[in-house]
Design goal:
Number of domains: 2
Organism: Equus caballus (Horse)
Number of helices: 21
CATH superfamily of the largest domain: Amino acid/polyamine transporter I
Strand content: under 5%
Largest sheet: none
Keywords: Amino-acid transport, Membrane, Transmembrane, Transmembrane helix, Transport
Order of helices and strands: HHHHHHHHHHHHHHHHHHHHH
Radius of gyration: 25 Å
Distance between the termini: 24 Å
Shape: globular
Region (Disordered): 418-439
InterPro entries: AA/rel_permease1, CAT_C
Domain Cationic amino acid transporter C-terminal: 524-562
């Protein structure tokens, strides 16, 4: 082919490659990892990787600058929104019991292009999460040493005034990441018991915080004299919900480890359900006692829990809280460094990432190149980046991934299931299935009323309806968020656009519900599909629109880097 514009045939082949979906295949037995993880292991892995982030990182940030004592409401809304995502993860993890979720979930349901974008997004999100956790770990270590470490670095390095960068480099945060990366690459087999130990200590400290915190609670701190329960109003609560949303992403580690789980169809749903409940309860209770112990405006956003006990004169309790925070951060950083090689290994194995990341060391049986390269990159981010500037970007990364995973539920539910190998074409069961309506086809009872959809090929109307549903959800949320400010619409125009987008959303939802979907008795399925995932998509987009344009710009640049790479 001569240089110039691509031909129509080559462009068609390129588009087909981008939409190519990964077939579900069982991994060869000799290549499959050992199924040794129990429900307790999976639950501790999720709770350990999530509780530290929500309690020790997000609680003080949201209470101080976004929602005040109404951080309790923000965590509650975020927990309910995340529950739908958790249920979607349960169904997908049972449907696709392989390493690499949610990347693999997207690859199976939506195609190669979306899979790469989600994998690339997940990679960056976990890198920044590990860097943020390391900086919080460093802050709590600094609390134990009466802030001498921070003062020493500030005296010898100075204070930087560069946007998006920290005021000074955090060598301690970079050091802990490099240490954990080296430990994982050399001692991978002891990571399970170490995770249990750190998680147990962290949970014990959380119980201690809740009990002593309620003993020291002062209802006056929620009164109008201190700013009231919701000093920033509804907008502050929703902004806090957007940030708190990231406190409920730990069950993604469960789905990613489903290939190593004992009886994944049973243990994975149980572990996800238990972990979401534990994390929600812990975050709500701790945020309650935190804002009742001291006025919300006096909290330090980096080490809020230890600072609250210190303000009340319980320095010994602040020391215990710092120890628990350090253990929680260790667990979270360890889980992230364990997870990152999984996603890069899955992408490299599928040809969507550098092949060197698929190499496993013959002696240690771990992807050492992936661990060390990603560990060094994460340490570099922890050394330089500012903590507050990262929080919104982490939330955007998590919500985009959650939205795509939720959309995958609708796609897989209305896709024709592969025929069972045990059913022959001439058997009675096979004949019955051939005559029964297939997933993606219009329900027989509705064909007389929706005859204009009856001529569509199976799945075509579902595809168009899903696209319209997502587009109308974006339009509706944009009207709700920006209708009074950015759009500058008159009242009648605002009302008309709101009614049109709402009607389009409901109409596309009804079209989806009018089609046949898969019904499986052997695995868990999300109830009330497509209503449940559609509402989740609507809420996720609404929360994403609360984020700043700088966050969206940074995320777009990262996606462009991935596309060019």
């Amino acid at each position: 082919m001569v240089w110039g514009l691509p031909s129509a045939a080559s462009l068609t082949r390129f588009c087909q490659k981008l939409n190519r979906q990964k077939p579900l295949e069982e991994s060869p037995r000799e290549m499959s990892p050992q199924r040794h993880l129990t429900t307790l292991d999976l639950t501790l892995r999720a709770v350990g990787g999530t509780v530290g982030l929500g309690l020790y990182v997000l609680t003080g940030t949201v209470a101080k600058g976004m929602a005040g004592p109404a951080v309790v409401v923000s965590f509650s809304i975020a927990a309910m929104a995340s529950l739908v995502g958790a249920l979607c993860y349960v169904e997908l993890a049972a449907h696709v019991p392989h390493t690499g979720s949610p990347y693999l979930f997207t690859y199976v349901s939506m195609g190669e292009l979306w899979a790469f974008l989600i994998g690339w997004n997940t990679l960056l999100g976990h890198l920044i999460t590990g860097a943020a956790l390391a900086r919080v770990w460093s802050s709590y270590v600094d609390v134990i040493f009466s802030h001498r470490i921070h003062s020493f670095i500030e005296d010898h390095v100075g204070i930087w005034q560069v946007p998006f960068l920290a005021q000074n480099p955090d060598f301690l945060a970079a050091g802990i990441i490099l240490s954990v990366s080296t430990f994982v690459s050399c001692k991978a087999r002891v990571s399970s018991w170490l995770n249990r130990t750190f998680s147990a200590i962290s949970l014990a400290v959380i119980i201690f915080i809740i009990i002593l915190g309620f003993f020291l609670a002062r209802p006056h701190n929620w009164s109008a004299e201190e700013g009231g329960f919701a000093p920033f109003g509804f907008s502050g609560i929703m902004a806090g919900t957007t940030t708190c949303f990231y406190a409920f992403v730990g069950f993604g580690a469960i789905a990613a480890s489903s290939e190593e789980a004992q009886n994944a169809k049973r243990t994975v749903p149980m572990a996800i359900t238990i972990s979401v409940g534990l994390v929600a309860g812990a975050n709500i209770l701790v945020s309650t006692v935190l804002t009742l112990m001291v006025p919300w405006h006096s909290l330090h956003p980096y080490w809020a829990l230890a600072d609250a006990f210190h303000q009340r004169g319980y320095s010994w309790a602040a020391f215990i809280v710092a120890v628990g925070a350090i253990c929680a951060m260790n667990t979270a950083i360890l889980n992230i460094i364990l997870f990152l090689p999984r996603i890069t290994y899955a992408m490299a194995r599928d040809g969507l990432f550098f092949q060197v990341f698929a190499h496993v060391h013959p002696r240690n049986q771990v992807p050492m190149v992936a661990i060390m390269v990603l560990g060094v990159l994460m340490a570099f981010l922890a050394l330089l980046l500012d903590h507050e500037a990262l929080v919104q970007f982490l939330c955007l990364s998590a919500m985009i991934t959650r939205t795509v995973v939720t959309t995958s539920i609708i796609i897989l539910r209305f896709r024709k299931a592969p025929p069972a190998s045990s059913q022959g074409p001439g058997s009675p069961v096979g004949t019955e299935q051939a005559s029964a309506p297939q997933p993606g086809q219009l329900r027989p009872a509705l064909r007389p009323y929706l005859c204009f959809l009856g001529g569509c090929r199976p799945g075509a109307a579902v595809t168009w309806a899903l696209g319209v549903l997502v587009a109308s959800a974006i339009t509706l949320d944009c009207v709700l968020v920006f209708g009074d400010s950015a759009l500058n619409l008159p009242t009648w125009g605002y009302t008309l656009l709101l009614l049109l987008s709402s009607a389009t959303f409901l109409l596309s939802l009804l079209v989806l519900g009018a089609h046949q979907q898969q019904r499986r008795q052997d695995t868990f399925q999300v109830p009330m599909v497509p209503l449940t995932p559609a509402l989740s998509i609507l809420l996720n987009i609404f929360l994403m629109l609360q984020l700043s344009y700088v966050t969206w710009l940074s995320f777009s640049i990262w996606l462009l880097i991935g596309e060019w790479g």
